[in-house]
Design brief:
605 residues; 9-stranded mixed sheet; 4-stranded antiparallel sheet; 18 helices; 18 strands; binds serine
């Protein structure tokens, strides 16, 4: 069979959805802006939440794309044949346009006519219903109408066929999932058993028609939406009959490079090479993102550090020479740069940060590993001693929170790495004890609380929306006070405050801060209507709208205008009138990185 490459699959997706009247939207950044509920973009629909809720999209009601996604809830699983922390999601959306009939018919056409999957290798799940929402018989009938045998349709509960989850608030709905029979040696059984692991889910089709309110109701959305997502890596792997995703064209050059650098064979060191290949790909996309993030001890920066350090530790076990990680990253840059030019633009940062981290961590890894061994030995010795006194004495294989914290604080061992190392030796770690030590020493990193890892939806609360408008006014005011060299470098908004980074190379004086506050408050007092219009990127530029022009925009953009104060390309949402903001205050300023200042501001105080 002819090989299906990553580019082939993307082309097929693109041509198919163009032929069905869809417009392509660019991949959003993997570090979401203005969405404090998640560290990374985990699905193509995430940046589209305002449009799923009813806002009109400048490119219309039928969209598709290839989205860079990062999911980090099972980093430890990486090393097997199919888990990845970074993946690309092929997605298509109907924003209140077509619904189940077309979505099912087109999915079936894509699977059987474009990807040429024999009908016999396909199976489907639909929602089986519960107290809140009834079973999705309608979709089951639609599959049958396409020629699917009813034995190949399984009805599953909300845990499987509701997206994102019945526990989360916001836009949601039941889904229908598409499965591919991966066993080349045995024919697929007539009756579909979703428990049989040889059935691999490749595509999810969400019927997003409800808004799950905070008081637990499932209210119909203003519009019925379609949100589909196909995992690119796994689809290419199964369609090429590989039982290992790392054998596809995505990783072939990378694995070859690791083999060359170590002189070892992939067949003998699969787990190690996969961990390095996966983690360095994700690190490349985080460092090389439009909102490039550096290794740190909190948030996305912590995940990045954890991935790089796990890759470094693994690289020692296969004697990957120092300096190799950045070489691997450069291979990824050349592979992906035509689709994600930001990687090429950020190439120097990627190389520098990987080398830096490798330099720093290699120094402490060896000493830390010795310390780790000492801890293990001390527990074993303690047990021997205690049992000499009393043969029934129990000393459990547990590394204390304090010991784990010392490995973190002195040797830079991410806690998850200590837990993994302990597990390899049959030991556990007192994670709660670690968290307590951590709290005592520093403010608790938000990342260590599980909530930040789960997928979530953009925060569109009124307060966040207003702060978003305040940020536009603030950028306009900063440019009036400090000059037109001030550009936005990043922003992060929670319902409590806005954090805003901009290019400027010194501390602002108290007078300057006051001037900025005065300009914003003047705009608020005037009660100006926030105008929103759609235009081409060229028209937006000519009209003087600010934008991060190095970013990729679609054919049409939305421009928010607050006459006299601000005009910016932006996806929104925004306040309707500046009066809603009531009052604006800057509460903090600090240096963010070289040449970049950071301001925190609040409203309504
Ligand atoms: N949002 C759904 C998912 O992530 C479909 O794209 O699976």
């Amino acid at each position: 069979m002819e090989q299906l490459t990553r580019k082939d699959l993307i082309e097929k997706w693109r041509n198919f959805y163009l032929s069905k009247g869809h417009k392509e939207i660019p991949s959003a950044s993997v570090i979401p802006e203005n969405d404090p509920s998640v560290l990374f973009n985990t699905a193509g629909m995430q940046p589209l939440v305002p449009y799923l809720l009813g806002k009109s999209h400048p490119l219309g009601k039928r969209l598709f794309n290839v989205q860079k996604c990062i999911r980090t809830n099972d980093i430890d699983e990486v090393g097997d044949y199919c888990h990845h922390t970074f993946f690309e999601m092929l997605g298509n959306w109907s924003l209140g346009d077509y619904f189940k009939d077309e979505a099912v018919a087109w999915s079936y056409e894509m699977l059987t006519k474009v990807l040429n999957i024999p009908k016999d290798r396909l199976a489907f799940t639909v929602f089986k219903g519960n107290e809140q929402v009834k079973a999705d018989e309608y979709t089951a009938k639609l599959w049958i109408k396409q020629g699917v045998d009813k034995d190949r349709i399984a009805y599953l509960p909300a845990e499987d066929n509701w997206w994102p989850s019945m526990d989360l608030t916001g836009p949601c709905g039941s889904d229908t999932e598409m499965f591919y029979w991966t066993d080349n040696n045995n024919k697929a059984p007539k009756k579909f058993n979703p428990e049989d692991k040889r059935w691999m889910e490749i595509w999810n089709n969400v019927f997003m028609e409800f808004n799950h309110t905070t008081d637990g109701k499932f209210e119909p959305l203003k519009q019925k939406n379609i949100d589909t997502g196909m995992g690119l890596e796994r689809t290419i792997a199964v369609l090429n009959s590989y039982d290992d995703n790392y054998l596809t064209d995505i990783w072939r050059p990378i694995i070859k490079l690791i083999e060359n650098l170590t002189g070892k064979s992939y067949n003998d060191f699969k787990k190690e090479m996969r961990i390095i290949a996966d983690h360095i790909r994700t690190a490349t996309f985080i460092l090389g993102d439009e909102h490039s993030t550096l290794p740190s001890n909190t948030g996305a920066g912590y995940i990045l550090r954890r991935l790089i350090r796990r890759a470094i530790r693994t690289s020692k076990t296969i004697n990957l020479p120092k300096g190799s990680l950045s070489k691997i990253a450069l291979e990824y840059v050349s592979e992906y740069k035509s689709d994600y030019p930001e990687l090429e633009r950020n190439k120097d940062i990627i190389v520098k940060e990987l080398n830096n981290e490798e330099e720093k961590f290699s120094k402490t890894l060896e000493d830390g590993t010795k310390e780790f061994e000492k801890v293990i030995n001390s527990i074993i010795r303690k047990r021997e001693f205690m049992q000499k006194q009393n043969p029934n004495a129990i000393v459990e294989n547990i590394i204390s929170g304090k010991q784990a914290f010392r490995l973190y604080d002195t040797f830079g061992f991410p806690i998850e790495m200590t837990i993994e190392m302990a597990k390899e030796r049959g030991f556990n770690v007192d994670k709660n004890g670690f968290d307590n030590s951590y709290k005592e020493h520093q403010e608790l990193a938000r990342t260590t609380s599980a909530g930040m890892f789960k997928g979530g939806l953009a925060d569109t609360s009124e307060q966040t929306t207003r702060l978003h408008t305040a940020v536009h006014l603030m950028l306009g005011a900063l440019r009036k006070v400090l000059g037109e060299n001030v550009h936005q470098k990043g922003s992060n908004i929670t319902s409590e405050r806005a954090r805003f980074d901009f290019s400027f190379d010194r501390k602002l004086t108290d007078e300057e801060i006051k001037q900025v506050e005065d300009i914003v408050n003047e705009a608020i007092k005037k009660g100006i209507d926030v105008q929103c219009s759609e235009m081409t990127l060229e028209e937006a530029k000519n009209s003087g709208a600010l934008g991060e022009f190095e970013n990729k925009y679609g054919e049409k953009v939305t421009v928010y205008n607050i006459p006299g104060y601000s005009k910016e390309i932006c996806g929104g949402p925004h306040a309707k009138n500046t009066a809603e903001l009531k009052n604006f205050k800057i509460i903090k300023q600090e240096a963010s990185s070289a040449g970049v200042r950071r301001i925190k501001a609040i409203i309504n105080f």
